[in-house]
């Protein structure tokens, strides 16, 4: 026995199934973005006082990267704020003359299979930032840059400036 579904019921059910709950898609990088990643062409120092940062390429899904950032923040009792493909980690005000350590991470689409994760210090002490990056952030995010057992940084098709530790 077949059941008849009205067109409006079909469309409403179809639309609900068509829009799965998922993470927003990261902004795609164009040629100008890629050129600006090169240290010789990076003009962010003209506009941004806190130029400390790093970036890495990953084959991990965006939601996995964001989850890992949230996990790191939880371990060190940082507050997390998320909007689309941007994550802000903020430490407490205690013990820092320059205010709380604030770190911004943004995820960009390089190709459909690869993303660039850019991490920047937005506030706080530089030594505290360096210590946090070396002890917490880099060791825990390192696995994300090596999805499927292959090191993305070993890829000859990726420019070295996309994988830089420090830029200004």
From TrEMBL:
Q: What is the lineage of its organism?
A: Eukaryota, Viridiplantae, Streptophyta, Embryophyta, Tracheophyta
Source species, domain of life: Eukaryota
Could you tell me the EC number(s) of this protein?
Answer: 2.7.11.1
The NAF domain, residue ranges: 24-48
> Main EC class of this protein?
transferase
What the entry lists under Gene3D superfamilies is as follows:
Kinase associated domain 1, KA1
For this entry, list what GO says about its biological process: signal transduction
Q: What is the similarity comment for this entry? A: Belongs to the protein kinase superfamily. CAMK Ser/Thr protein kinase family. SNF1 subfamily.
Protein name, entry field? non-specific serine/threonine protein kinase
Which residues does the annotated region (Disordered) include? Answer: 1-21, 144-168
Q: Which organism is it from?
A: Noccaea caerulescens (Alpine penny-cress)
* Chemical reaction(s) catalysed: L-threonyl-[protein] + ATP = O-phospho-L-threonyl-[protein] + ADP + H(+); L-seryl-[protein] + ATP = O-phospho-L-seryl-[protein] + ADP + H(+)
Task: Give coiled-coil spans as residue ranges.
Answer: none
Query: Which GO molecular function terms does the record list?
Result: ATP binding; protein serine/threonine kinase activity
